[in-house]
Amino acid sequence: MLGSGVSRNAGIPTGWEVILDLSRRLATILGEDCEPDPAAWYRTKFGVAPDYGQLLDKIAKSPTERNQLLRPYFEPTSEEAEDGKKSPTAAHKAIARLVEMGVAKLIVTTNFDRLIERALEEVGVVPQVIASADAVSGALPLVHSRCTVVKLHGDYLDSRIKNSPAELESYDTAINGLLDRIFDEYGLIVCGWSAEWDVALRAAVERCKARRFSTYWVSRSELGEAAKALVALRSGSVIRSAGADEFFVDLVEKVTSLEEMNRPHPLSVKVAVATLKRFITRDEHRIQLADLVREEVDSAYATTTRSDSLKTQYVRWSAKEKLNFHDRALEIPLNLMIHGCYWGRSDSQRIWLNSVERMARSLENSTDNLSDQSMRGYAAKVLLYAGGLAALIGDQMETLVALLEHTKVRDSRDELRSVCYSADRYDGEAVIRKLPDWERRRTPVSDHVHSLLREPIRELQPDDREFDLAFDRFELYRSLTIGRLQRGYMPLGRFGWRRHSHVDIYQVVMTELDAQGSNWKPFAAGFLGGDVELARKLLAQLLPSLERIH
After folding, report:
1. Whole-prediction pTM value?
2. Which of 262, 278, 321, 418 could anchor a disulfide with 317, C-beta 3.0 to 4.6 Å?
3. CA separation, residue 31 to residues 17, 34, 390, 392 (Å)
4. What is the Cα–Cα distance from 56 to 63, expressed in whole angstroms?
5. Secondary structure element (H or E) that encloses residue 26, with its range
């Protein structure tokens, strides 16, 4: 059920705005000044409230003249068309998509414009339109129509449209009967309608006592008293949204993602990943992609740092409970990072860097932290590993290098430092070592992250051995990056203890560098500044630490 707020973004005037403008035109014709209140002028002049039909009779006598008079209010000029005005908005197009998908089939609107009809026709749906009482009796039953648009107040090219308060107080018997069936048999998504002025429509909703299906009322601000009463009457839910465009576009994406899941109980992680995959290949969805990732990362950040209601419980949790809490909070962002960095293009690279940096802010705001101090960098480290490993497996070397070398966070002296290094200092090792049988692990964080990422990455790299090699290579690259930034300090990952019983990734990289020199593949993406001698120097500095491992 759509009100004037849905068409407002298209630059379409409301019915009352049309009446006021027609009153100004009439005053001009009569040589009078109607400002500042054209409606008050009309009441004084003619003794009644301004009426749409009467105004048309006074200004334009013939149907053709009326048609020409009204078109500019609802149809775009060539300049307006170029600016996208008075054309179907993102909301209209999203609703048409829902109809095309078979999810929605009935649209009730108080608007006079034909934007929804135009949007439907663009997707190949020709709707049944009911715009007057006499059209009700000849209409196909709603259940047999692919799509029906009920224009309660008429069409802008019909002089019988309803605008004045008196006209909105009651509907014809046929329209009332139609509304009674609709509100009894269908659920409602209400958007762009205040319920303040349309007395007859409000009464039709109030008459329906059935609660067969749900009611959702979309609003960008606090509802008025009339709307609140209707929501309460229908046991409805209020959905806050920035606007009709944002709500319906988001709704289409969620419905589409759910339909793509061929399981009876789809998980939210899979819905999010399916949505990301659809966004990431299309330029027109760059903003939606950034919003999707940002919202999920912000949610995880808030959960792991500012859940005030959990603070008293958190301190009593075991190490395992604490770690599981953080891992569950990171589940969606982690999966988005994996698939985003594997499938993403260079123009989406900043999204992944921002995600790591956002999580790293817990290193700056230690007093805001829910977790122990040792966990402050854990979330950022997990996302860095998830994105970097996926980029490596997907041969997205520029993304890998950017994550390692260009993600920054401010330290206690308000200086920018590498997340790659800073997160390492508070990566949760003290908590993970308290897990049963983990106190003697050489690289507990590395081992846990390896286990955490295995299943999410299995779709992209099903072979366990190849996954292990990629993980070792990523950790070696990370160590070299930190060595370059921290002048020699290079943390060892699990690859250091695996080199004696598995493939030695250190030797693999040394062999590649010896054979390829400045043509070594990572150099093309800017790794270590493409400096062969620096790479050799850092690898040489790392070797004594590796050789001390037995």
Report:
1. 0.57
2. 321
3. 21, 10, 73, 76
4. 9
5. helix 15-29
